[in-house]
Every structure is written in C-alpha cells, then in structure tokens.
Amino acid sequence: xxxxxxxxxxxxxxxxxxxxxxxxxxxxxxxxxxxxxxxxxxxxxxxxxxxxxxxxxxxxxxxxxxxxxxxxxxxxxxxxxxxxxxxxxxxxxxxxxxxxxxxxxxxxxxxxxxxxxxxxxxxxxxxxxxxxxxxxxxxxx
Length: 141
Known about the structure:
This protein is an all-alpha fold. It is 77% helix and 0% strand.
C-alpha cells in the first residue's frame, strides 16, 4: 500500500469511515455467509431434502465452517495489524476512541469464532457419535 495514502487515511480519519473497521466488517460478512451456507446445507441433509450420508454431510458442513473461522481469524489479525498503526501516531482523542472501540470489535469477532467452533463440534457430534434419529415428521411428505 502506498505510504502517503496510508498517512492520508490516518490524517483524514476524523469524521470519516475508518478503513480497517470497514474491512473487518466485510470479512465478517463473508464469514456469516459461509456459516449460513454450511448450516443450510447440513439442515437440508438432515431433513432429507438432499439425500446424503450424515457423516459426509457433517464433514462438508464442518469444512465450510472451518473456512469461515479461517476468514474470521485472518480478518482479525489484519485488523489488529492495521490498528497498531494508530498506536504509533501521536495520540489524539480520536485515536484513543478508536483503540477503545476496537477492543469491542476484537471481542465480538473472538466470540463469533468460538460460537462457530462450537457449532462445528455439535455437527460432528451429531454426525458421527450420537445415535442419529430424524426429527418426527421430517422427510415424511
């Protein structure tokens, strides 16, 4: 990235949109889309809209969730790296506010990662370990 452009972003940030937060939000959206696709796919195999072995469906769903988690971790690492640039600047009230707000963003993304991993564990448990029985009435049409 062009260094003068980076300085301009940091200098012009008051009153504007701060780019690292925008990028974090975009990658978090990608992560949510992947989670949604994964859960929809797994649900469709469980109610037998799609016929597939439950273990294979679980592996596919968890693979998509892992991609979602990787995107979230990568976005978080890039966000904290870009945020560290603010810490090297002269501390203004805006920079203090951004650093304070960033803690919330970082915590929320971490919680989302933990939830995604928890969902993956539940899917694996339901696919491989638990005696799987379809929900009453599911797929009986």
